[in-house]
């Protein structure tokens, strides 16, 4: 059995209209081990990360996600599960160079000083297909909150 180590380095972004609004992921790094049995595929899952956000003043918002992974060799997807204050857009496949995709949508805007915090558990899934050499991918996953 081979093991693939996948290291995620999480970056956060705020769209210009977000001002000082909050967006956070904890923990900021995730290591996913993918057991590879030699039958052509392997999958590793991590559900230990939490995404938290605050909506924009008077505006419906969304959270997008993208990855920067030079020489990406392995598959990676992320899904926001059980979101509070927003709706999951489902499983998002992360591919280096692809534009940001919606992760959480329909986040209600805040009203004056009522800043409610939304949250969702992140489910990362790493996949190996074919016969890879042992190794790793280093993903910088960027989350951005912006107007919908």
Describe the structure.
The structure is a single chain. With 148 residues, the protein is mainly beta. The protein has a single domain, classed as Immunoglobulin-like (Sandwich). 0% of the residues lie in helices and 64% in strands. The protein has strands spanning 2-14, 23-26, 29-36, 41-54, 61-68, 75-84, 87-88, 92-94, 101-107, 117-129, 136-147. The strands form two sheets. A six-stranded mixed sheet has the order 3-1-11-5-9-7, with no helix packed on it. The chain has a five-stranded antiparallel sheet with strand order 2-4-10-6-8, with no helix packed on it. Residues 1-20 form the signal peptide. Keywords: Signal.
Give the low-confidence spans.
Answer: none
What is the CATH third-level topology name?
Answer: Immunoglobulin-like
- Based on helices, strands and strand pairing, what is the structural class? mainly beta
Instruction: Quote the beta fraction.
Output: over 45%
Rg, Å, rounded? 16 Å
Distance between the termini: 45 Å
Across the major sheet, the strand order is: 3-1-11-5-9-7
CATH architectural category: Sandwich
Characterize the biggest β-sheet: 6 strands, mixed
């Amino acid at each position: 059995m081979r093991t693939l180590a996948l290291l995620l380095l999480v970056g956060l972004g705020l769209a210009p209209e977000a001002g000082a609004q909050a967006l956070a992921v904890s923990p900021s790094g995730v290591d996913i081990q993918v057991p590879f049995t030699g039958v052509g595929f392997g999958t590793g899952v991590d559900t230990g990360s939490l995404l938290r956000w605050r909506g924009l003043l008077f505006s419906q918002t969304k959270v997008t996600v993208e990855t920067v992974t030079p020489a990406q060799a392995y598959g990676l997807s992320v899904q926001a599960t059980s979101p509070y204050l927003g709706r999951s857009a489902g499983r998002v496949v992360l591919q280096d160079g692809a534009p940001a995709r919606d992760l959480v949508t329909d986040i209600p805007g805040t009203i004056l000083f009522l800043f409610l915090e939304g949250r969702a558990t992140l489910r990362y899934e790493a996949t190996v297909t074919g016969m890879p050499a042992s190794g790793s991918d280093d993903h910088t996953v960027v989350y951005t909150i912006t107007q919908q």
